[in-house]
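Hi Prof. W.,

I finally got the HSP20 family protein prediction working! I wasn't sure whether to trim anything, so I left the full sequence exactly as given:
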Amino acid sequence: MLMRTDPFRDFDRFAQQVFGSTGTWSKPAVMPMDAYRAGDEFVVCFDLPGVDPSAIELDVERNVLTVKAERRPLPSGDDVQMQVSERPLGVFSRQLFLGDTLDTEHIDAAYDAGVLTLRIPIAEKAKPRRIAISQAEERKEIKA
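And this is what came out:
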């Protein structure tokens, strides 16, 4: 048997059922992420626990990356009696606006242990490069 100690969770769930939105104390369903640069690539990690990899969609249009994921309900049957249902179900989406310095043609996506990891290479034109300096010709003296 499970015991809960949060007295407001039941009120939030009731308010969501009655009003069709989340209550004041509940957190909206989100797709938390971390983003960082590692060497010559930009890495973005999304937390998607309980989402089947086939229910994840990635789209890039211009410089907008859209991540959509659907958490589907657990299989039900005559012998299944739900005791607690707190994990949000449905479709979650998030959009990222990518800079021109990223190579959106070569995005690598991997899903492991409930985390979707995207690796986006830094575009060649944005990488630091050394510029050669040519020596100026010696000044020619002008005779007057």
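The chain has a mean pLDDT of 79. Does that look reasonable to you?

Thanks,
D.
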